[in-house]
From TrEMBL:
<dbReference type="GO" id="GO:0000815">
    <property type="term" value="C:ESCRT III complex"/>
</dbReference>
<keyword id="KW-0175">Coiled coil</keyword>
<dbReference type="GO" id="GO:0015031">
    <property type="term" value="P:protein transport"/>
</dbReference>
<protein>
    <submittedName>
        <fullName>CHM4C protein</fullName>
    </submittedName>
</protein>
<keyword id="KW-0967">Endosome</keyword>
<dbReference type="GO" id="GO:0005771">
    <property type="term" value="C:multivesicular body"/>
</dbReference>
<dbReference type="GO" id="GO:0031902">
    <property type="term" value="C:late endosome membrane"/>
</dbReference>
<dbReference type="InterPro" id="IPR005024">
    <property type="entry name" value="Snf7_fam"/>
</dbReference>
<dbReference type="GO" id="GO:0009898">
    <property type="term" value="C:cytoplasmic side of plasma membrane"/>
</dbReference>
<keyword id="KW-0813">Transport</keyword>
<keyword id="KW-0963">Cytoplasm</keyword>
<keyword id="KW-0472">Membrane</keyword>
<dbReference type="Pfam" id="PF03357">
    <property type="entry name" value="Snf7"/>
</dbReference>
<feature type="compositionally biased region" description="Gly residues">
    <location>
        <begin position="9"/>
        <end position="21"/>
    </location>
</feature>
<comment type="similarity">
    <text>Belongs to the SNF7 family.</text>
</comment>
<keyword id="KW-0653">Protein transport</keyword>
<feature type="region of interest" description="Disordered">
    <location>
        <begin position="1"/>
        <end position="25"/>
    </location>
</feature>
Amino acid sequence: MSKISKFFKGGGSAASKGRGGPSPQEALARLRETEEMLSKKQEYLETRIERELAVARQHGTKNKRAALQALKRKKRYEKQLNQIDGTLSTIEFQREALENSHTNTEVLKNMGYAAQAMKKVHENMDLNKIDDLMQDITEQQDVAQEISDAISNRATFGDEFDEDELMAELEELEQEELNKGMRDVRLPSVPSTSLPSRPVTSFMSFIPALTPVQLAIQKRAEDEDEMKKLAAWAS
């Protein structure tokens, strides 16, 4: 049991009930009644003081005895009035202290109830279980984040192949196709029969004599023509 609970449930409260003491509300009500009574007594004494002053003025020196008696009564009333002022101050201080004590008691009582409620709430809580629970929550959050990242990433099917190897294989295929094309090229066969010969004299008679420069140009043209023919056969 907490100290606050002992304060409200312990011997202090029981002893108060055993003595038959008043409650704070009852004591405050009594003090307010006393203050009201003394305030009325103050008003009465102030009235009597004014009356005795009037009597003293009325008699004056004509009737010194009556005037002096009135002044004596006025002094007694003033003394009582001063005593009542002091009593009211004391009662007011006691009432304020009791009100503050009652307020503090109610505050402590409510705080005690709140402490008991918190204790009751925490009875079924295990700190080790809470730590395990928070760890599980953290792990599941990590798993959820990994799943979210996996879903949001672009699919990369087929990226496990090496691109350099694929390019090398493609080059090999192109080289094979090129080699195959070269094998399929058929050059014209050399005729087995000899061409008919013409008399050199008759053939040369129609060709004018060429200069060395003209002969070189003609030779170059013939070579280019042969290369074009070979390129046509290869394609």
